[in-house]
Amino acid sequence: MNAQLEQLQARVRGQLDQLQPRERLMVLAGGAVLLVVIFYLALWEPLLLAGKRRADELDSARALAVRIESAASLAQSGRAGGAVDRGTPIVSVVDQSSRGSTLGVPPTRVQPEGNGDKAVKVWFENVPFDNTVRWLGELQARYAVTVSSAEIEPGSAPGTVTARFTLSR
């Protein structure tokens, strides 16, 4: 291998010796520029890109950590603050929440079931379907009230329904 390298060097020197001094200078300068370009493209640029990629990954991980911490604190505050109210009678809960802005339309009729503390029947006419679903979700989240049975029919206007729910705790 060493002999082959010496042969190559001798051949290159022979080629350079045949060139004029100006041509020799241009070939050596071109070779130096080529070595710098190869060094930059093969070593330096990949290192720079890897560093930038790692910095972006670190920023992304930090942003994720902040979102996780805020979600955890929100969950803790919800648990500590007693987000679910089970003490208010179900009839009062349904009456108060249905008059709020979520539903937009008061119930046509509210009738306690049994002793009134565990279940209630609620009738609505021409209430927006989306608002009804939001209201039911709010009842579930805030007061632990669930839908035991539901009868839903299309209302007279598009997007509205006539519904009867049996809600229980």
Strand order of the largest sheet: 1-2-4-3
- Helix-strand string: HHHEEHEE
- Share in helix: 55-70%
% residues in beta strands: 15-25%
Given as residue ranges, the uncertain stretches (5+ residues, pLDDT < 50) are none
| Through-space gap between termini | 88 Å
Biggest sheet character: 4 strands, antiparallel
Judging from the principal axes of the Cα atoms, what is the shape?
Answer: rod-shaped
Radius of gyration: 39 Å
Structural class: alpha+beta
Number of helices: 4
Mean pLDDT: 85
Number of strands: 4
- Quaternary status: single chain
Protein traits:
alpha+beta; 4 strands; rod-shaped; 4-stranded antiparallel beta sheet; 169 residues; single chain
Task: Write up what this structure looks like.
The longest helix has 60 residues, at 21-80. The protein is built from four helices and four strands; from the N terminus they run H-H-H-E-E-H-E-E. The radius of gyration is 39 Å and the shape is rod-shaped. 60% of the residues lie in helices and 20% in strands. The protein has 169 residues and is an alpha+beta fold. The N and C termini lie far apart (88 Å). Strand 1 (109-113) and strand 2 form a beta hairpin. The model has no long low-confidence stretch (mean pLDDT 85). It has helices at residues 2-18, 21-80, 90-98, 129-143, and strands at 109-113, 119-128, 146-154, 160-168. A four-stranded antiparallel β-sheet has the order 1-2-4-3.
